[in-house]
Recover the amino acids of this structure.
């Protein structure tokens, strides 16, 4: 069976928890960039990458990824998303697909894709949507041939299919990832084995995972379960506990305790700090217990690490310049 | 009760010796039998929204000036603080140092969630001994209007004892 998928990545992140809302905004080169949760590493890989990997594993051939909002919202026209979406659907239908999956990677779910497709085929429905205990999820299977035969925009044709859609009740693991707490729960569930979020790396001791080139000082204590991402550095006297995850290229400075927390990629955590129930992304800290977002301009406490390998070509080119000049002279 | 003296950095100092007058009759016997007690100087340190490297030098200078009394009773108010960095933490340590050097007492009057988070992250809550172990949420809540009065009464009782 020929199956394709269009994966939509949500735009602005709203880490709402109760009444208050917060977002992790990244300012780079003067422009405002917003990083969706689906693009945050969880145990070494983003949920977007995990979803795509899962689709490939289940034999989904054509996969298109569309962002609902660009990284720089100012530069895009208001209907740019729907234009891209229509183009992606048209492109997928060229391959004479039998079924088209429409997925929005807000929630994370461990769907048995063949089982879902079997249900869709057996019900002979034009559209089947996945539901969990909390309600509808952003994952539908469409009869691609019926979608191709209709008239008007694909968006309009899709709208016409909604009233007769079938419900597929999903009972496996799902996480809506609608708040920072949800994200933290996914990382914890992955480490304790409730969710099948496989840590990327090797198991260096029972339930302690470390990525490639992760460096852990001897005096540091890693209490299982824990994840230390690739190129991370855990300095002397640090304690990592409470199913914490330190994502790639992060550095935890001397004597710091990280408990029940997620440290996102390329984050520097200063010396002698005590983190408990937090998510830290570079200079921004989200305190889960207080539902509070704090931004630090003091890089002694929190900041960003730089990828040494990325800097290497620049250093080489700069080092090479005076030499070349001297030859020419 | 407290004639607050507003100074440019939002530190307010209060000379509180009125309790002595009100308790004059009841403590006359004690006053006769023991050495005369020095008046307590209550200093309310009301920190601004940003306690960061920017403007910290002025804050520290004014703080030293206000704490330049014997046995100060310092009430530290962090309820307006939204931003606190390592320089701000230095300022708090300076405040503690100046108070302890003068044989004074320091107590927390108010604490914003932002300040509480930074103090917990850096372990300063334990260093300053400001936040009672498991009652941090209580200390974040609005301070009682009679807090200062209660503190003065408690201080007078401990001195009288």
């Amino acid at each position: 069976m020929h199956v394709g998928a269009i994966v939509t990545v949500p735009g602005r992140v709203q880490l709402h928890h109760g009444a208050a809302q917060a977002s992790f905004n990244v300012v780079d080169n003067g422009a405002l960039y917003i990083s969706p949760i689906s693009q945050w590493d969880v145990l070494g890989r983003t949920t977007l990458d995990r979803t795509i990997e899962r689709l490939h594993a289940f034999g989904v051939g054509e996969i298109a990824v569309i962002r609902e909002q660009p990284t720089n919202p100012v530069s895009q026209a208001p209907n740019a998303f729907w234009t891209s979406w229509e183009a992606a659907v048209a492109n997928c239908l060229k391959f004479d697909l039998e079924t088209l999956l429409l997925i929005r990677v807000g929630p994370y779910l461990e769907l048995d894709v063949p089982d879902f497709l079997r249900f869709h085929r057996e019900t002979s429905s034009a559209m089947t949507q996945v539901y969990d205990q909390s309600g509808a999820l952003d994952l539908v299977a469409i009869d691609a041939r019926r979608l191709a035969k209709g008239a008007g925009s694909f968006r309009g044709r899709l709208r016409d299919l909604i009233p007769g859609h079938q419900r597929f009740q999903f009972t496996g693991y799902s996480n809506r990832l609608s708040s920072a707490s949800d994200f933290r729960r996914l990382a914890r569930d992955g480490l304790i084995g409730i969710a099948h979020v496989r840590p990327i790396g090797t198991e260096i001791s029972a339930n302690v995972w470390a990525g490639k080139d992760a460096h852990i000082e001897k005096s540091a204590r890693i209490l299982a379960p824990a994840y230390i991402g690739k190129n991370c550095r855990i300095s002397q006297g640090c304690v990592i506990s409470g199913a914490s995850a330190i994502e790639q290229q992060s550095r935890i400075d001397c004597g710091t305790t990280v408990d029940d927390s997620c440290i996102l990629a390329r984050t520097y955590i200063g010396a002698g700090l005590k983190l408990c129930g937090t998510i830290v992304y570079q200079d921004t800290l989200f305190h889960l217990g207080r539902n509070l977002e704090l931004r630090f301009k003091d890089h002694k406490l929190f900041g960003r690490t730089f990828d040494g390998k990325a800097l290497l070509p620049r250093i080489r080119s700069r080092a090479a310049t005076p030499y070349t000049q001297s030859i020419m002279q | 009760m407290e004639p607050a003296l507003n100074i440019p950095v939002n530190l307010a100092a209060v000379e509180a010796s009125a309790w002595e007058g009100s308790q004059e009759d009841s403590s006359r016997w004690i006053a006769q039998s023991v050495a005369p007690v020095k008046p307590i100087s209550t200093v309310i340190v009301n920190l601004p929204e940003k306690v960061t490297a920017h403007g910290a030098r002025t804050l520290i200078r004014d703080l030293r000036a206000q704490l330049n009394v014997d046995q100060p009773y310092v009430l530290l108010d962090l309820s307006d603080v939204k931003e606190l960095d390592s320089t701000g933490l230095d300022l708090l340590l300076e405040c503690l140092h100046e108070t302890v050097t003068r044989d004074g007492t320091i107590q927390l009057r108010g604490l914003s969630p932002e300040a509480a988070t930074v103090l917990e992250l850096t372990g300063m809550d334990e260093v300053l001994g400001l936040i009672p172990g498991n009652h941090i949420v209580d200390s974040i809540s609005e301070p009682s209007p009679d807090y200062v009065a209660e503190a003065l009464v408690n201080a007078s009782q401990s001195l009288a004892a």
Remarks:
- Residues 13-33, 320-329 of chain A have pLDDT under 50 and may be disordered.
